[in-house]
Amino acid sequence: GEDVEQSLFLSVREGDSSVINCTYTDSSSTYLYWYKQEPGAGLQLLTYIFSNMDMKQDQRLTVLLNKKDKHLSLRIADTQTGDSAIYFCAERRTGGSYIPTFGRGTSLIVHP
Amino acid sequence: KAGVTQTPRYLIKTRGQQVTLSCSPISGHRSVSWYQQTPGQGLQFLFEYFSETQRNKGNFPGRFSGRQFSNSRSEMNVSTLELGDSALYLCASSLAPRGGVLSSGANVLTFGAGSRLTVL
């Protein structure tokens, strides 16, 4: 299977919370990232979490890390139509290249 | 602070031709990475350059090549274009200092807007 897996699509209603999930395979991952890609643009870093943390919060964004299950999630509170984008999860491993490995991305669709 | 600049933004080529894409990193960033993004394969790592040397390489054929100049600007070249090379090519820069993995911190990548290549 792929190193970093994400579901491809998520549809939510405006004002609801969105939860985007990601699983990774390498237990030695040190940093885990969330990037956002809006139409016609490159990827933009949203947030990252170091592997010794369980949670990180930044305004409407909450990242949860479950190292035992190798599961990462991104929660967006009060989702707005401007949050419609592709969200990429990425991991960076120890012991080798520090180039992050990206998932395929989750397309978040926010409808009124 | 200027972001990562990629040129051209859009281009159309025919099969068998070659193409060169350019990337100017953020000032002070010494590492430049290239990615290919397609709907079917997602984001695929091509290669990474640091101080004019290719430091990491993804699993792409030799038709894909790159280089980095002394000012950290980078170019990638694709020769003998195939229809399947149609994609968005993204460049990303980072500080990524030389040395061990643990010394490089979070190694946050800053991406350009990409060059969209269409091969007919």
Give a written overview of the molecule:
The complex is a heterodimer of chains A (112) and B (120). The model of chain A has no long low-confidence stretch (mean pLDDT 91). Chain A is mainly beta. Chain A is built from no helices and eleven strands. In chain A, 38% of the residues are buried. The radius of gyration of chain A is 13 Å and the shape is globular. In chain A, the strands form two sheets. In chain A, strands 2, 4, 5, 9, 10 and 11 form a six-stranded mixed β-sheet that branches. A five-stranded antiparallel β-sheet of chain A has the order 1-3-8-7-6, with no helix packed on it. In chain A, strand 9 and strand 10 form a beta hairpin. Chain B has 120 residues and is an all-beta fold. Chain B has no helices and eleven strands. Chain B is globular, with a radius of gyration of 14 Å. Classes of the chains: A mainly beta (112), B mainly beta (120). At the A-B interface, strand 4, strand 5 and strand 10 of A face strand 5 and strand 10 of B.
Q: Average pLDDT of chain B, to the nearest integer?
A: 90
Largest protein interface, residues of each chain: A-B, 25 and 26 residues
N-to-C SSE string of chain B, H for helix and E for strand: EEEEEEEEEEE
**Radius of gyration of chain B over alpha carbons?**
14 Å
End-to-end C-alpha gap of chain B:
37 Å
Main sheet: strands, sense, barrel of chain A: 6 strands, mixed
| Helix residue percentage of chain B | under 10%
Oligomer: heterodimer
- Strand percentage of chain B: over 45%
Chain-averaged pLDDT of chain A: 91
Work out the helix count of chain B: 0
What separation lies between the terminal Cα atoms of chain A?
A: 36 Å
What would you call the structural class of chain A?
Answer: mainly beta
| Number of β-strand runs of chain B | 11
